[in-house]
Amino acid sequence: MSDNNRDNDKTILITGGTSGIGKSLVIECMSKGEQVIACGRSQDKLDQLAKELPGVMTLCFDITDKTAIAKAIPNELTIDWAILNAGDCEYVKDVMNFDTALFERVIKVNLLAPAYLAEALIPKINTGGRLAFVSSSVTNLPFPQAEAYGASKAGLDYFAKSLAIDLKPHNIGVSLIHPGFVETPLTASNSFKMPMIINSDDAAKRIREGLCRGQSLIAFPRRFIFIIRLLKLLPEKLWQSFFNKDKA
């Protein structure tokens, strides 16, 4: 699919559309003349978004609630792209008191919710359309305290790759998005250094460009991804010793 800034026939649904990468995607796609449906769980935030961006359509629902999703999405809706961007991150701070409630929350938001959305949205995607999942570059390597987040995104990767095989005969493409560190309200709470971090507007541009090209994997920034993939080749013992050197 070629990029065309005058192509205003495309209808794009974006979850998590009121902040971070999602809001930047809404702005980026609307700037290209595309019809955008911004989804979120806060009606107040959606109303504010509609004031800021005249012409945006909005849908309010909780992505972890199958019933709410079914009620919110109109039967007659048809879309060209569905960008499933909404997600969450919680770290396991005390592994000796492992919190399964935390684990369940993260898995539900980052893995089960995209499955709920896929169930509702796949029949709405036009022939030649695309389903995109915002995952994470964290799936390349195991990181400390990321048991829940990493597992949820690794599961999402497999889900997306498997869907890509089964949706191809229906002429629906699937894109898996692997951002590095991006400045968002979610990453603002991180207490560790985030190398090569980019802003959400930059991330949105890269995502849209990749979707326009029909890329199955959209990973950025390139230098960060290259380093991560290179480090992935190191023996596991080296990784463990690196992360545990301050605990010795």
TrEMBL record:
Lineage, highest ranks first? Bacteria, Pseudomonadati, Pseudomonadota, Gammaproteobacteria, Pseudomonadales
Q: Kindly provide the name given to this protein in its UniProt entry.
A: Short-chain dehydrogenase
A Pfam family annotated for this chain is: adh_short
Q: Which InterPro entries match?
A: NAD(P)-bd_dom_sf (IPR036291), Sc_DH/Rdtase_CS (IPR020904), SDR_fam (IPR002347)
Q: Which domain of life is it from?
A: Bacteria
**GO molecular function ontology, one term from the record:** oxidoreductase activity
Q: Which family does it belong to?
A: Belongs to the short-chain dehydrogenases/reductases (SDR) family.
Alphabetized, the UniProt keywords read: Oxidoreductase
Cellular component, GO, one term: membrane
